[in-house]
Amino acid sequence: MKIKIGKAEDNDFIVNDPHVSRHHACLMREDHGCWLLEDLGSTNGTFVNGSQIVKKRVTPTDKIILGTGYVLNLSEALKYNNDYSEEFAALKKVYDDYVQAKVKIQSANQFKTRLFQSLPFALPGIIGVVIGFLGKGSPEFLGISLFITICAPTVGIYMGAKQASKTPQQLQDIANQFKIDYVCPKCGTFLGEIPWESLRNRKQCPVSSCKAKWVSE
Asked: Which of 26, 179, 206, 207 is surrounded by the most beta carbons within 10 Å?
């Protein structure tokens, strides 16, 4: 992870000092958590505790000078950490889970809708066979069979339509949660339904004022 320091607007920590170079220095976090300060070939140099350095491990107690007199507050500079690669990586599961849930809901509802709509048309025939064995032509059983034959398709169409109507609400529920979870880890901007891999290729948040980096350099 790096925090770039200098006068240029593309730095993480911008210094408005005439003696500081456009891309003056950078802070790099090492694996064990310490910070390494590196001069990026600046015109007026970088100094730690009075000595000019090219690269040196630093702590908040060190006195850091950029150029001829700008005092760099390390604790303040570290607040401008824009590396959100770990948090962004976690969004892959959020996106994958959303896509899978959406497909599952759509598939399940299509199956149930077809089932409710088709089963009632087959049901009278099945019942007719059963009644034929049990009722042996009894008027009561024939009446029941006729009633089911007339009503079953209507009930099936109603149940199928009712099941189909559940789909938009279920999809809306997961979409609402997705809008809460699938956001830039820094600025909270919803990232739309853009695939995670496509966002990763952009490497940073599309909001210009955010500057959150999604891929470690």
From this structure: 26
Residue 147 corresponds to which tokens in the numbers above?
A: 């009633």
Angstrom distance (rounded) from CA 212 to CA 203: 9
For residue 186, the Cα-to-chain-centroid distance in whole angstroms is 12
β 46-48/2-6 pair status: unpaired
Tell me the C-alpha distance between 175 and 110, whole Å: 19
Which residues does 215 contact at the CB level (< 8 Å), separation at least 6? 85, 88, 200, 203, 204
Determine the Cα–Cα distance for residues 3 and 1; give it in Å rounded to an integer: 7
CA separation for the pair 133, 130 (Å, rounded): 5
Task: Please give the CATH topology (third level) of the domain spanning 1-77.
Answer: Tumour Suppressor Smad4 (2.60.200)
The pTM of this model reads: 0.52
pLDDT of residue 65: 96
